[in-house]
Amino acid sequence: MAHDSAMAGHLRVKKSLDKILANFYWPGIQGDVRRYCASCDVCQITIPNGNVSRVPLGSMPVIDSPFKRVAVDLVGPLQPITKRGNRYILTLVDYATRNPEAVPLPKID
Fold first, then answer.
1. Does the pLDDT of residue 51 top 80, yes or no?
2. Whole-prediction pTM value?
3. Which pLDDT belongs to residue 4?
4. Terminal-to-terminal C-alpha distance of the chain
5. Which residue range or ranges hold the Integrase zinc-binding domain (predicted)?
6. Distance, CA of 46 to CA of 52 (rounded, Å)
């Protein structure tokens, strides 16, 4: 759950290990996490040589009018399914006000 779950984001070894160590410990944990991250199919496909290239920073336009730009993301499918049958979350954030909204959804078709 600290590396490849829907909310984890395929973090590198150090950040995955930090997440796990916040709640768990066992002898050999560092080696286990390193091997698990190295064997991740998604990471092997998207980061073939193990190095993530950094994107140069650019200037961002200032958004000062509400609803001029909105960020939308869909998370899921999540487990377990809620009592109301929801397994997805539609997230929306207004760039100007930074007001977040989260809408539970049972399906996305």
1. no
2. 0.47
3. 63
4. 26
5. 2-46
6. 9
Q: Which pLDDT does position 13 carry in this prediction?
A: 84
Please state the separation of Cα 82 from the chain's center in Å. Answer: 20
- What tokens does 27 get? 């002898």
Token digits for 23? 């709640």
The beta strand positions in the chain, using DSSP E, are: 70-75, 88-94, 100-105
Rounded Cα gap, residues 61 and 94, in angstroms: 14
**pLDDT digit string (tens) for 66-109?**
989 999 999 988 989 999 999 999 999 999 999 999 999 999 88
- Position 103, amino acid: V
- Asked if residue 28 has pLDDT above 90, the reply is yes
Q: How many other C-beta atoms are found inside a 10 Å radius of the C-beta of residue 40?
A: 15
Task: List, edge to edge, every strand of the sheet that includes 88-94.
Answer: 70-75, 88-94, 100-105
- Rounded Cα–Cα distance for residues 77 and 64 (Å): 33
From the list 68, 72, 64, the residue with the least C-alpha distance to 100 is 72
